[in-house]
Amino acid sequence: MKKQSKIMSIILMMFALFLIVPVVADAHVTVQPDVSTTNAYEKYTVRVPVEKEINTTEIKLEVPKDVDLVSVLPMTGWDYQLEKNENDKITAVVWKANNGGIKSGEFVEFSFIGANPSKPGEVSWKALQTYQDGSVVEWVGPAGSDEPASITKIQEGDSVKPHAESSHSDHKDSNKTEADNASTNWLPIVLSVIAILLALISLLRKRK
After folding, report:
1. Is the pLDDT of residue 75 over 70?
2. Confidence check: pLDDT of 43 > 80
3. Are residues 151 and 122 in the same domain?
4. On the chain, which terminus has fewer CB atoms closer than 10 Å, C or N?
5. Does 83 share its domain with 99?
6. Are residues 55 and 10 in the same domain?
7. Can you tell me the distance from the alpha carbon of 14 to that of 198, in angstroms, rounded to the nearest whole number?
8. How confident is the model at residue 19 (pLDDT cuts 50, 70, 90)?
9. What is the pLDDT of residues 91-114, one digit of tens each?
10. Do 161 and 176 lie in a common domain?
11. Do residues 40 and 122 lie in contact, with contact meaning Cβ atoms separated by under 8 Å?
């Protein structure tokens, strides 16, 4: 009976770790929305979480060649610089902290307006995340990799109205999707806590 109890405890512990790992691995630098429309003037948001135990002090976002960066929303505690090519096109925006940066366990969102391409397809947002110790995490890989670049799918849409002023239903759907995703991300945490509690109860019974 004691042996079975020990085996059950180990299984529950492993199950808890299995559920926790995907939640941690999902803390990537992302650009939202992940779906937009052609010719839209879209408000994009760069979400930067901190995966390490040290602060993030700089984030560089490369602007896809088919997207034109129109304007950047100023952020308290952060300065930004625009990088341009020989044709004066903005190729990247770099945010640098002037107050210590983003702490461990926190995240910050940076926003800007981008003019979408005229043809449907996908645009890839490559980002470089610099930490206080000088280490850099390069979010430039393909989907499914350890450090993927964020992708926005560009669908055929209204070429007259800017996306920020078009149908509010699109934004409601987008907000609903984000809310659903947030709820889904909490589920593994709850299940993990339950599994750990069951494992502890089993260990306590064994000691008795």
Report:
1. yes
2. yes
3. yes
4. C
5. yes
6. no
7. 12
8. very low
9. 999 999 999 999 999 999 999 999
10. no
11. no
pTM: 0.68
Domain of 79? 33-166
Q: Are residues 110 and 78 in the same domain?
A: yes
Q: What are phi and psi of 193, to 5 degrees?
A: -60, -45
pLDDT per residue over 127-174, tens digit each?
A: 999 999 999 999 999 999 999 999 999 999 865 444 444 444 444 444
Distance CA 155, CA 153 (A): 6
- Of the chain, the percentage scoring pLDDT greater than 70 comes to 63
Q: In this structure, what are the phi and psi dihedrals at residue 163, rounded to the nearest 5 degrees?
A: -60, -35
Residues 133 and 185 in one domain: no
Distance of alpha carbon 6 from alpha carbon 25, whole angstroms? 29
Tell me, yes or no, whether 43 and 18 share the same domain: no
Tokens of 187: 């589920």
